[in-house]
Specification:
By secondary structure, the chain is of the alpha+beta class. It has two domains: 147 residues, Jelly Rolls (Sandwich); 105 residues, Orthogonal Bundle (Arc Repressor Mutant, subunit A), CATH 1.10.10. 46% of the residues lie in helices and 24% in strands. The chain has ten helices and eight strands. Strands 1, 2, 3, 4, 5, 6, 7 and 8 form an eight-stranded antiparallel β-sheet that branches. The two termini are 32 Å apart.
């Protein structure tokens, strides 16, 4: 943590229809792993401390102090935390209303590594964004746009932008596949079902999915079901059987087996601990 920084300062800005347009968070702590996923917003993240690994559109990267990235709405990424990560996070919705910012973001997608001086400057800019939450709306939005551009310029000046992330037409398939899985994971779905939904060859889809997600389709669906099951069990209000079938498992015995294999504890034991 940067000395003197406030714990978990957060700022959120919305338009007239209450649509969240910007979200800023300083000292956003990440202590757990995240499976491959996408967002409906542009994501800017700067690592302040900690270590991790990330697959981005199927390509592995190391994360450490000074690592930073700008991702689009079609970039598939995961996160493996090796040491607890402390990050500055900025989320910008594509509909935020400033075409210049959207264009600048799209022109600077990628992963960079800031040196200590550059990192301090970017963190300061991020904290200035958060401070704008207390300003008047008219003045605040104008300043937010200026500060965002300053941060994006920091990325554009990096010679090691490798890591530029070029749009890949396959990402559209992956994004649509993830959305389909999220809506249908409680049902008995297969890789072939998803390929049929996407109207592409099943073998081609399976290969593409594993390349981008670092999981097979079956592994991804099972992990999604297990995460949902763990959340429901932690609430302490559902029986193991209810959780099993609500999360798409076809038998309690199979649910027990894969849950214990994943978490090292039986579902019933987790429920009793609540």
């Amino acid at each position: 943590m940067i000395q003197g920084a406030k714990p978990f300062p957060v700022a959120s800005f919305r338009d007239e229809s209450n649509q969240q347009m910007f979200f800023f968070c300083r000292n956003h702590k990440l202590n757990e792993n995240y499976p491959p996923h996408i967002h409906d917003y542009f994501e800017i993240e700067i690592v302040v401390s900690g270590k991790g690994k990330q697959f981005l559109n199927g390509i592995p990267f190391n994360l450490e102090r000074g690592s930073a990235h700008i991702l689009s709405t079609t970039d598939v990424h995961d996160l493996t935390v090796l040491e607890p990560l402390d990050i500055c996070k900025i989320m910008v919705h594509p509909e935020q209303g400033d075409e210049k910012i959207t264009r600048e973001i799209l022109n600077n997608l990628g992963i960079v590594k800031f040196n200590e001086k550059e990192l301090s400057e970017v963190i300061l800019l991020t904290e200035m964004l958060i401070d704008e939450e207390s300003a008047s709306e008219k003045d605040s939005m104008s300043m937010i746009h200026q500060l965002l551009r300053c941060i994006i310029i920091k990325f554009s000046r990096q010679e090691n932008l490798s890591t530029r992330i070029n749009p890949n037409p396959q990402n559209k398939y992956i994004k649509d596949a993830i959305n389909y899985i999220m809506l249908n994971y409680i049902n008995d779905i297969s890789s072939a079902d998803i390929a049929e939904y996407l109207n592409i060859n099943a073998a081609y889809f399976s290969t593409m999915f594993r390349k981008f997600m670092n999981f097979t389709v079956t592994e991804y669906i099972t992990n999604l079901r297990l995460r949902r099951a763990k959340t429901m069990l932690s609430m302490g209000i559902y029986s193991v059987s209810e959780v099993c079938y609500a999360c798409g498992f076809n038998s309690v015995s199979n649910f027990f087996r894969v849950f214990k294999l994943k978490y090292g504890i039986a579902p019933s034991e987790l429920k009793r601990k609540r």
